[in-house]
Specification:
Distance between the termini: 95 Å
Helix content: 55-70%
Radius of gyration: 33 Å
Number of strands: 0
Order of helices and strands: HHHHHHH
Oligomer: single chain
Largest sheet: none
Number of helices: 7
């Protein structure tokens, strides 16, 4: 018993796609306006965040260099050079601040007042003296600094770099 009228694959027809029962486009203009408001808000937020990120590039660079200096200060051969660079780094950060006041010539009590006024947390009252010692002190005096003193100095500088506020 053979069947001669068996269906052939060439006889198959593709089914038509039906239109969806609902539209993907919002039914009212309100939803479209809401979508546009959300997109504009997100765009403005992204641009502001990007500008803030770019404006704080000097902080990230300074924190990276400070971490390198702290590592170098732990090696005897590089210690003096690393300690001498810390006050310079803090001064460069102050000079790099957006809308920064004239800080290039500040020293002593004026430098301490500037550091304290831009800091969000209290600083040691003798920070400017410690930075001055690092910059200009005799090599023998720098060699007598304990590891605890150096760690405290580096953490204070890191705190100021991270959290100093900039007058807008």
């Amino acid at each position: 018993m053979t069947r001669t009228d068996a269906p052939n694959i060439s006889q198959l027809k593709e089914l038509e796609l039906t239109t969806p029962a609902f539209s993907y486009f919002p039914q009212t203009w309100g939803w479209l306006v809401l979508l546009l408001v959300i997109l504009v808000t997100l765009s403005v937020w992204a641009v502001l965040r990007w500008r803030r990120w770019r404006r704080n590039q000097y902080r990230r660079d300074a924190l990276l260099r400070l971490a390198q200096l702290q590592d170098e200060a732990n090696h005897e051969q590089q210690r003096l050079r690393a300690l001498r660079e810390v006050p310079e780094l803090v001064k460069r950060v102050a000079l790099s601040m957006p809308n920064s006041p004239e800080v290039a010539n500040l020293s002593g009590a004026d430098w301490q007042r500037f550091l304290q006024s831009t800091s969000s947390a209290p600083l040691p009252p003798d920070l400017s003296q410690r930075l001055s010692l690092l910059a200009y002190g005799p090599q023998a005096q720098l060699a007598t600094l304990s590891q605890e003193q150096l760690d405290m100095l580096f953490s204070t500088c890191r705190q100021w770099i991270e959290a100093h506020h900039v007058a807008a």
